[in-house]
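Sample intake sheet
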Amino acid sequence: MKTFTIISILLLSLVASAQAQALRLTPHSISLKDGKTFSLNLPEGYEIRVAAEGLKRVRFLAVSPDGRIFVTDMYSLADNTRGAVYILENFDADAGRFAKVTPYMTKLRNPNSIAFHTDWRGRSWFYLALTDKLVRYRYKAGETSPSGTPEVLATFPDYGLSYKYGGWHLTRTIAFGANGKLYIAVGSSCNACVEKEDVRASILEMDADGGNRRIYARGLRNAVGLKLIGGELYATDMGSDHLGDNKPDDTMYKVEGDTDYGWPYCYEYRRKIFSDKKFASGANRCRSVPVGYTAFSAHSSPLGFEYFDGSVADAALKNSFLVALHGASDLKLGRGYRIMRVREKGLPVDFINGFLQNGKVVGRPCDVMRLGADAFLFTDDHAGVVYYVFRKG
């Protein structure tokens, strides 16, 4: 009885802490050109606009050296060659809308992530991560298609189980560090298995030209979100699907080099590391597996994120991450389908929700990118929309 009382007190304390941090959200009406209308809930004082629409499976954002905004579009869930990269042009902050969407590249195989980098010689490059390879092109300011022929910097395995079985992670995500190193996340080939290839379920590190490639971190089942913040590498990761509706937690890590994050042998649940009984022979590995920077409910599917530092004026956003939770495929769970605020101390809290309404999906957040003071863009790969969110005044 005493143990039960202590646990009850701890749970009540966690609930009270979450309630104390919760933001007051208010509904905002959304109307799309395809006739769909619904409401999304945002913190008081914030507004939302449809910045671009009519896209398909719009994914990750990047800013070019000449200040233009690029976005990827994977078109559909199938492994296909209909993906694209678009330029979002002539943004009108008053209207909260881009005047033009220009195709930059088309007929691509799952273009999840792109990046730009200027090397020590002052040359600018456009990097494109596809399922089977990483390529780069010389980039020229103002261009509307890539210049020259691509350099293939790395190739990746491109087989596995289909989405139907929770595997075959087809996306590759790239991010540059201040040191000029390039980091690439490669997902697992399965839901839970011992991989035959070391590159799977890992983050790679390499030089900007593809040289000195090594495995930077391993044991990350599907680290789709990847970004350098203040010299530190952060990643979101999705846990295995065979442990039930409530385990394991999905996670976000401050990734340390030469570290094993446990998959498939270990998983995190309620800030503790457990051994997966399916892989009992690897239980000893779990002793050294770190817990995440933060954790989300099982099957929330955290993807892209952005950090809002101390220069942000609004207290609701200052010194915080915003993380896009793509959402569970089992709609009955109601997990994810929101953007959550994450701080180093404290539980994640909703910043935008309403993407799942009465069992109906109206959106699936994918990536977040800061755009000026107290404002940001986020992508929705279900509705094919890029949204602009800003604080009034």
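Comment: Confidence is low (pLDDT under 50) at residues 3-20. Residues 25-391 form a domain with the Neuraminidase fold (CATH 2.120.10.30).
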